[in-house]
Each structure stands twice: as structure tokens, then as C-alpha cells.
Amino acid sequence: MYILLGPSSSTCIFLQKLLLTRRFQFKDECLRLCLLARVRGTRCLSAMHIPGDDQCVISDQDQITRPDLFVENDAHHSFTVNYFRNTCVDPPLGGVVCTMTTKLCWISEGGRLEARLTGFRGGEGILELAQRKGQNPKLLAIMTGLQENKFANQFAQLVSFQNFHLIYAPDVELSSCYKAGLLRDHQGKKLITIDSDSRGMAIQPWTEIDFHILDDSIIDKVIVVVEDGTSNVVDCGKLQIHGNTSDWQRALNGGTMRFSVAYVVSALVAFFVLH
Known about the structure:
Layout: E1 2-4, E2 9-10, H1 11-18, H2 26-39, E3 46-50, E4 55-59, E5 79-85, E6 97-99, E7 104-108, E8 110-118, E9 124-132, E10 138-144, E11 150-153, E12 158-160, E13 162-169, H3 182-185, E14 189-196, E15 202-208, E16 222-227, E17 233-241, H4 245-252, E18 256-260, H5 261-274
Parallel strand pairs: 1-5, 2-5
Antiparallel strand pairs: 3-4, 3-5, 6-7, 7-18, 8-9, 8-17, 9-10, 10-15, 11-12, 13-14, 13-16, 16-17
Protein name: Apple domain-containing protein
InterPro entries: Pan_app
Organism: Nippostrongylus brasiliensis (Rat hookworm)
């Protein structure tokens, strides 16, 4: 039987806080592995670290989708584990809105874009953008293979951050995105600045940005990752629709899925009965 150590923690936030320190353990590497699954096109919803033997188990399920995950009915061989739910995979847009006046509920659907980032130095990453009509857009970024941070003081655990700017460059061709001095000749809009850690990984959990994406004209446009100080482009990728094209079109039109309050109540009752 596994004994979970406290409530499940947020993988995104936990690892982002680790960027501020220089102490890393195998547990932290387990969480990195879970996050990198998203970069490499697979899914990790949760990670379990067993302190006793430094074993790492990742899964495409979590204790919401599968309550008995990581649970064994063997009380004679119980031990403690660290369990983390990967909140980076949680959709940034969601929720059901209901009005008792009309007795209707609806989901205001959002559009999502993604750019698979690759670099000539071997770096890789993913940038995701999401927006619901009438709301501010959100951004998620996970990258690895960047220039590592150098620690300024190993005793005080202070770090000298290596900054990278994620820039929307609509008039840049993907085939020429690594050209020296690229941004001197092209216009671009900075979406966000992120920091790498001592192992060249950067994590930006879902956060609001000032860049509206609900426009077909930005599809197939290039995102470049620029190293602060040198202005060198280290990664780049092309924005593509995340998910179905029909979902994207509904998001552009502010489309909603409507159903009755009674339907919502019956669906919730059925869910809790089955679980």
C-alpha cells in the first residue's frame, strides 16, 4: 500500500520554484521527466517518486481520472511516496456557466494554438496559447536544451538568470529563423521572458499575456526564442491549431455549447454514482 505524502502538489509550480535554488534531487528529475513528456508529444498526468529507492513512476492518468492510481491493497508492505499531479496539462479554459432565469447552461469554448520549438543546438520545447472570446489570452511554455544558468554564490544559493524572450515574428520564414541579426531586419512582438535553470530547462505555467490569438492570420506564423544579451535565436517554431479545426472555428465565432440545467444536474449525479 502506498501512503501519499500530503496533498498532491502542482508539478508546474513546484518545478518553477526549484529554478530559484541550486539544490536538485532525484525527485525533481522525476518531475522534469513528466513535464518533458508534453514536449515530446506524449502525456504525463502524474508522477510518483518513491524516496526509499529513488524510483520514478509516471502515468497518463491521475487520481482524478483514476482514483485507485498508485494504490495497492497490501497493508503489510506499506511505504511512503511523493505524488504530484501535472497541472501543466490542465486546460486553461473551462467551466460551465448556468443561468436560472433561462434554465440553460453553456460552455464558452476557447481556441488553442501551439508551436513545437526546435533549435540548432539541440534544444526543444513547446509553446501553447489559449483564448476564449472576450477574455485575456494565456500562454504555457516548457523548454529544454537552453543555455544553463550560472550560480553567482554557491553558499547563498543565489543565481544569475539566463533570460530568453519568446517573440512572435510574423514576417520571418521558418527556414531562415536562425539567421544572425534576424530581429534587426524584422518586426516582432515579445510575448514573455522566461529564465532557464542550472540544467537548461525553462518552465512558464499558464499565465495571461497581452497577445490576442483569435485570428486566422497568425496561423503558420513563426515564434522565435531569443537569448537575452546576445540576441541570438536559439529555438523557433510555427504556430498551428491545437486540436480540431472545428473547435478553432467555434472559438473565432464565440461559439457555445448549450444544454439545460436539468441535463447538467443529471450528468453530475451520474458521475458521482459511477465514481
